[in-house]
Design goal:
The protein is of the alpha+beta class. The protein has 12 helices and 8 strands. About 45% of the residues lie in helices and about 15% in strands. One of its GO terms (molecular function) is oxidoreductase activity, acting on the CH-CH group of donors.
Length: about 375
């Protein structure tokens, strides 16, 4: 594993860090620094800044309008980004369905959907989980029946983040009930303004309503909105989830937060901070190991499960440390300790979404370790 960065890569990192920090509006930074969820307006405003620099689609190749960063440059970009108190880009369009579209979509689909995603003109949500089909996604029951040049979709999705704001949803549906579950799944792009769609908010334990139930009652979806062939959805879903899990380590943000908390330690939390520092260092080395494999032409594949497992657990541990330190400080809390309780409650979700950590351990055992 090569841990050295070239002078060119170091210069790239310095340039990105300087330009990102100079472009971040202070009011948005204050929202993140005080552990509050950003509003839709704040997220869109910041993504406008990123889109103007062509950094919103930082991971996209040049032929689809991205900057064409190397794997090392993409890693360094994420390091510079994660060190800022900036909202993460809304991943559903840029990081999830975008790569599926430019890899598997038709030319018409690429021309239609990629520019609005890249230019921050559409908001996407993910129609995967259902009641009774979360980590066991192949058990989904939403159906799509072909009727002329459209599918008629019926079913229910749940835990759908920001569906209340979404223009489009990428959705897994059953198009064939006669084959094994994975083989009968297709991948549809559904206009959220379609007749028959109802979005109902779910209030989470921290009081927020970022997640929703989505009901689909006789929703007509043109066949042209299907990615690839019928029955190919499971293949695309697995690739997409690998993209999601790779970005879920959050190591750069965890390093930012742990550094800030270390500076506020008055002696009572030193041992916990040092233990977390060791765990975080191991995660950072795992990222570098996977980066080295990518630079050699490899694909991280199911090994991204390890990033998701350790990254989310470390993020939760840091949020608990923040909460305990906030209680220790009392009423006169520094900014980074404010809203610690609601933040800790919200982050309970991390080890569940994107495939629960229990399921990810099974994936690692079976596919990576061969046991």
């Amino acid at each position: 594993m090569n841990l050295d960065f070239s002078p060119e890569d170091r210069a790239f990192f310095a340039r990105v860090k300087d330009r990102l920090s100079g472009a971040l509006p202070e009011d948005i930074a204050a929202t993140i620094r005080t552990n509050q969820p950003p509003s839709k307006e704040e997220m869109l405003r910041w993504q406008e800044v990123l889109a103007a620099e062509n950094w919103l689609a930082a991971g996209w190749p040049t032929e689809f309008g991205g900057p064409g960063l190397t794997p090392t440059q993409r890693y360094l970009f994420e390091q510079a980004y994660g060190a800022l108190y900036a909202p993460p880009p809304v991943q559903f369009g840029i990081t999830m369905v975008g790569p599926i579209l430019y890899t598997y979509g038709s030319e018409e689909q690429k021309q239609r959907f990629l520019p609005p995603i890249r230019e921050n003109r559409t908001w996407w949500c993910q129609g995967y989980s259902e009641p009774g089909a979360g980590s066991d996604l192949a058990s989904l029951r939403t159906t799509a029946v072909l009727d002329g040049d459209s599918y008629v979709v019926n079913g229910q999705k749940t835990w759908t983040t920001w569906a209340q704001w979404a223009d489009w949803m990428f959705c897994l549906v059953k198009t064939d009930l006669t084959v094994k579950p994975q083989a009968g799944i297709s991948f549809l792009l559904i206009d959220m303004k379609s007749a028959g769609i109802t979005v109902r908010p779910i209030r989470t334990i921290d009081g927020d309503t970022e997640i929703n139930e989505v009901f689909l009652d006789n929703v007509r979806v043109p066949v042209e909105n299907r990615i690839g062939g019928e029955g190919q959805g499971w293949t695309y879903a697995k690739v997409l989830l690998e993209h999601e899990r790779f970005i879920m380590s959050g190591a750069a943000r965890s390093r930012r937060d742990l550094t800030a908390l270390r500076a506020l330690d008055r002696g009572g939390f030193t041992a916990r901070i040092e233990a977390l520092d060791t765990e975080l260092l191991a995660l950072e080395y795992l990222e570098l190991r996977l980066l080295s494999a990518m630079n050699a032409g490899g694909n991280p594949g199911p090994r991204t499960s390890a990033l998701k497992i350790r990254g989310t657990e470390i993020t939760q541990a840091i949020s608990k440390l923040r909460l305990d330190m906030a209680r220790d400080w009392g009423d006169e809390k520094p900014e980074v300790l404010q809203n610690a309780e609601s933040n800790w409650l919200n982050l309970r979700k991390l080890t569940i979404w994107g495939g629960s950590n229990e399921i990810q351990r099974n994936v690692m055992a079976k596919v990576v370790l061969g046991i």
